[in-house]
Fold each of these.
Amino acid sequence: MEVASDFESLLHRWHSLHRELDSAGVRLVAVSKYASDEAVACLVDAGQKDFAESRPQALRNRARSWPVCAWHMIGPVQKNKAKYIGRYASIWHSVEDIEIAGQVARYVEGRVLPVLLQVNVTGNPRQHGIAVDEVTQLFEQINSMAQLRVDGLMCMASRDADARAAFRHLRCLRDELFGGSLGSLCMGMSGDYRIAIEEGATIVRLGTALFSDRCA
Ligand SMILES: *Cc1c(COP(=O)(O)O)cnc(C)c1O
């Protein structure tokens, strides 16, 4: 009984988020890192295509279970986990290191792996991502690899800072780098996705707002 009603509210949240984001032309990535396999299966059945995981092994396991979906890698990647990303990720959001990118590229076979550069727009030393003044260089380095292609930029706003300013900054960087609005702009999580959409996000990453009952 409890499980069924959980999924009922999950589906209700998914439908309403899906409607909202669809009408804004924004891609919804379901961040399933804390979600059960049952909850993932429920959304797959409903028609959700994009999911994100923050741990390479979890990404591999779920990509094997649901190969029809796109599995997005959103967490830090260590060298010894590079193979899981190269083999199983549909998109890799958290690129911040040329060496790790080179390791991942070694495992990409018969395709080109689209990636996003994670930018530390707030300059907060506790946050992941490359510094703003390193973006152009990493962009060129990654695009010189045959197996990887930079599709856009990604950031996380810090909780205590101005999210809108961070998103606006990332959008400017994207416009400069891609010469207009062609590159993806992946920004916005449960707490700030509406601001991100106002600032031009093309992809949002939602965990809590989708999977948690405590978040309306
Ligand atoms: C966990 C996570 C999310 C989802 O966060 P919510 O606030 O639960 O929506 C989004 N992006 C990244 C990089 C994450 O690690």
Amino acid sequence: MVCGRRYSPGEVAYVCSEEGAEGVLDARYDYAAASPAFQADELAGGSADMWRYRALLPLAESDPTPPLAVGMTPLYASPRLAKLAGVAGVLLKDDSRQPTGSFKDRASALAVALAMKAGAKAVTTASTGNAAAALAGMAASVGMPCVIFVPASAPKAKITQLLAFGARVVLVRGSYDQAFDLCLAASERTGWYNRNTAFNPFMTEGKKTVAFEIWEQCGRTVPDVVAVSVGDGCIIGALGKGFRELRAMGLIDRLPRLVGVQAEGSDYMTRAFESGADPLTMGPITASTVADSLSAGLPRDRLKAMLAARESGGVFLRVSDAEILAAIPELAAHSGVFAEPAAAAAWAGLRRAARQGIVRPEETACVLVTGTGLKDVDAAARGCAEAGLAAMEIDPAPAALDASLTTLNRLIR
Ligand SMILES: *Cc1c(COP(=O)(O)O)cnc(C)c1O
């Protein structure tokens, strides 16, 4: 992505040997050869998970994959959300239902498959939480040792998930960016298979499967817009790549516009987009947001992210922490889908995009729900409290029930 050098499969493990850790690679395939595998009758016989797209993944037919069911998550049409946003249609792509509760399972499942293929002794990653939980879960499913570097400030639920999956957890008293550098050094010294986002180019490959699913679930077409939250930029980059690959195979003739949603306190991509700065040279910002999964001072996948937004005619925009917290109960109450802050941010971003005319009233937008609300219950509780949502508490007595029914009937009317 940086210098244009090309490598054949297996020639380098992760990054460009000239550019070093910043020399992120982009996998290319023979799209004419892959396109028969994407015809409707071929896909009809495929497995109901992400491996149905193996023709465009870096795995052979015989390579084993983790047994957990990753991908082919539901796509819900939500007329009530559409009305709220003031657009013709809203589709929720519900990746909160992945095995470990987040979108990151798509990448981590492929990482573990590749680690098995490489005969690695262990897998490792740095993460703000979800990528680590996903890697730990996928590793546990095949009995592979896993070492995780996370900031000590990661939510308790995410750290608990790691420990329960049997991962070796290193809490770094510092930022995600610092944990990332330590993890790179550790894998260089040990040979552990490294899943780090934008260092391992194949994480994009696992994540792009969501674009293929949206296309299939929309009846082999694509929505006008896809809204996705952005931290490191790997997911939006992967969405862009997936849709470009569908176009390269002649399966779609236009790309959905990608709306990259950032938290106000972690808005590197939005700043670069608005100012026209080159993300290759623009320096880091200081990142801080309630949406811990979106906190990235120097988005590791900023080149792929910028390409995805620009190529598709999309944008980056920012939403406040207050909007993100409010979006949690709003999304949940109007759809039955409970999202963590980073995932609810995509819904908040769609609302903002519709208000600003970036998404027009006659258009249909897909919102990618990237993680479950159970990942960060404290943040969800704050969102409920700020929306004035509270339970009522009563004594276990008939008179108390009478009084509460009066109130409940008024609320339900
Ligand atoms: C990682 C993550 C994101 C952001 O993805 P990036 O590739 O870092 O931009 C959004 N939502 C959730 C729940 C995540 O875990």
